[in-house]
Amino acid sequence: MHPSTVRREAERVKVSVRVRPLNERENNAPEGTKVTVAAKQAAAVVTVKVLGGSNNSGAAESMGTARRVAQDFQFDHVFWSVETPDACGATPATQADVFRTIGYPLVQHAFDGFNSCLFAYGQTGSGKTYTMMGADVSALSGEGNGVTPRICLEIFARKASVEAQGHSRWIVELGYVEVYNERVSDLLGKRKKGVKGGGEEVYVDVREHPSRGVFLEGQRLVEVGSLDDVVRLIEIGNGVRHTASTKMNDRSSRSHAIIMLLLREERTMTTKSGETIRTAGKSSRMNLVDLAGSERVAQSQVEGQQFKEATHINLSLTTLGRVIDVLADMATKGAKAQYSVAPFRDSKLTFILKDSLGGNSKTFMIATVSPSALNYEETLSTLRYASRARDIVNVAQVNEDPRARRIRELEEQMEDMRQAMAGGDPAYVSELKKKLALLESEAQKRAADLQALEREREHNQVQERLLRATEAEKSELESRAAALQEEMTATRRQADKMQALNLRLKEEQARKERELLKEMAKKDAALSKVRRRKDAEIASEREKLESTVAQLEREQREREVALDALQTHQRKLQEALESSERTAAERDQLLQQLTELQSERTQLSQVVTDRERLTRDLQRIQYEYGETELARDVALCAAQEMEARYHAAVFHLQTLLELATEWEDALRERALAERDEAAAAELDAAASTSQNARESACERLTSLEQQLRESEERAAELASQLEATAAAKSSAEQDRENTRATLEQQLRESEARAAELASQLEATAAAKMSAEQDRENTRATLEQQLRDSEERAAELASQLESTTAAKMSAEQDRESTRATLEQQLRDSEERAAELASQLESTTAAKMSAEQDRESTRATLEQQLRESEERAAELASQLESTTAAKMSAEQDRESTRATLEQQLRDSEERAAELASQLEATAAAKSSAEQDRENTRAALEQQLRDSEERAAELASQ
């Protein structure tokens, strides 16, 4: 009996279509409620109705023909999940119906050893994820569970049932990956930070092996023992899977997700000695694919990153469509097909699904569509691709090791023989027992050999992993040594930088010290300069104040002397009026003199007016052109010259008064000599008139003195103003020359007038006789004038008192000025103290800067020492690393020698096993031949027995 060949089954891809209910967006749209799809679940036919009208703004003109003709599509199964019954009146399909039709066969194929695949294809928002995962993956039971949790639940139930028989056990492993932007990410991989967006993606590479097929290198597979484990892992993967909200779907999948279930059988056999032998049995792989939905950018209105995601999704789905077209064309046309190789490698998705499409797999496809007219084009495109996929033919084979398959066949034969021995002929049973013992020994031997080979393979894999780990450790040590070398170099560079920085800090400190010393010298010089300037200003102000006080005292004394002279002269006039008489001519002369004095007073008033005008002109010039030191000097000179001219005019007036006094004395003597009462009366009148003139002159003198003080005050104000222009100087000089000329002209006129008065006084004697007639009238007038003179004397006394008060006020001003100057002196001293304190603080800052520099120097020296210590540590670590590297190389060489020896032993063992297998095959052939001979003999004996029994029965 020869071993059976590998079991292979060729069948096409099973395609199902599921029509979902209308969603909220479609119910709210004007044409959303128009259903364009009809289905007959019993006949598995989907009909796309004619789309009438032209109101659908989203329709493409290229689909016009398709809209006018209804199209029927035949599939393997149709699930109508719309609320209303289908065209045949069947009730809507549930999640349980989908599982019974698709999921249950997948579980059966998995335990039979066939690879299988289920992938959902359709537009975004058409119900793919709901069909595959359900409304809530965390819910372990309920009507809303999807195909995936139901498949896992059925796998664990079947696993428990098989393991209960005691011949084998099944191991289930789960993997979960996604294809996002043409990169494959392991959703169960160990992430450093653990959350999407905050942690790193764990990418894996897609590889292809001649015997294993397509696999993911570096993928993490987790063994699961219950549905709770599956749900937990799926929730972990969904937590890091890429999803987003679009106009078409609130939770749109932005990647293709693949759940991989790996089933491995482990068979057990007990020998006669009681030893348990474990061997590998069947294995299978199940891929549950939730494809991202195809979408039109105009409808989903995505942009930015979502636009990039939609582009990659549509490209991968387009590649999937091309693969389906090529495989379908190859299946239907054979050698006449246009393409002989499908473009699997154009996309990561199609590369992963290579075995599922046209390879070693039993594949199911479920296409999900929307019945709404809003999705007419997408629905029609999905149905066309699904219909095209039905033409793809896969050739699936059982995944089982030939030796394990042979052991399984021997076990099946032994089980058949055990059943044949029940109630049979003893001799036949004895023969069968012998053959059964031979088969059992052969099976046990093969199982032991297989177990030994598996252990040896596992040992070799362990050694290979150890070798790879050693190589990885070596490379890691080399990288660490290089990193340590770089770190030491960086430390040296840092030490050099710190040393250079220290030098720069020292230079900067020295530079700052020099700048600080220069700044301190500048401040000292500025302080000395300010102190000298303040001292000079104080001395100057003190001199000005003393000169002003002295001038005021001098003027006061002059005023007192003038007042005493006037009073003395008044008494003399009074005595002359009482003791003598004046003649009419003398009276006229005195009157004429009085008139001249009044005119002279008018002229003096004009002089004062001119001086005031000059002062105003000077003020205007100062306002227009500014003030300078030169203008102050000019103004002071002008004021001094005006004051000199004023004193000259006063002196001239006093001279005239003295002349008048002399004339009065001469008249009085003449009057005394003549003893003329009338003349005496006239003389009294003349004296009174003269007294009035003197009083007027005194008043004018006082006014002039007041104006002089005002002029002096103004001159002092002008002296305090420091800016003027050359034009002001020239104008002031010109005005001064004009004033000088005017005053000189007035002085000459006054001298001429004085000469006239002298001549008039000489003519007074001649007019004495003519004045006697008016003496009586004049006496009354003189008496009145005398009373006025007395009143004027009282006014002069009050003016004297006011002058005294002004003097006191001037003294107070002097005192206040002195206090102000003293305050300024104190302020200057305080400023000097502040500058001294600033100097002290600057010195303290300098000391602090020196301390900081010393501390910085100590810190840098400490860091330098630490860097040197670190460099020494790094050098020691480098030496130890080098020693460890050499030790690792020695270990690697010894491990390599050991592995090579083990490999040679394995090869020798394999040769022995091969020879044993050949001997076993020869013995097996001999045993089979003996068994055939025995069977033929037994059959002959059985026929003989039957003939004998027939004969006995006939007898």
Describe the model.
By secondary structure, this protein is of the alpha+beta class. Among the domains are: 94-367 and 377-400, Kinesin, CATH 3.40.850.10; 556-794, no CATH class. The chain has helices spanning 24-28, 64-68, 95-112, 128-132, 147-163, 227-240, 297-300, 305-333, 348-352, 376-389, 402-421, 426-579, 584-625, 629-674, 677-720, 726-762, 768-772, 775-954; strands at residues 8-12, 14-19, 37-40, 45-48, 71-74, 77-80, 116-122, 168-180, 183-186, 205-209, 213-217, 222-224, 243-244, 252-253, 256-270, 276-290, 362-369, 393-397, 399-400. Strands 2, 6, 7, 8, 9, 12, 15, 16, 17 and 19 form a 10-stranded mixed beta sheet that branches. A 3-stranded antiparallel beta sheet has the order 3-4-5, covered by helices on one side. A two-stranded antiparallel sheet has the order 1-18. Helix 13 packs antiparallel against helix 14 and helix 13 (584-625) runs parallel beside helix 15 (677-720). It is elongated, with a radius of gyration of 68 Å. The chain starts with 7 loop residues before the first strand and ends with a helix. The model is unreliable at 54-67 and 194-198 (pLDDT under 50).
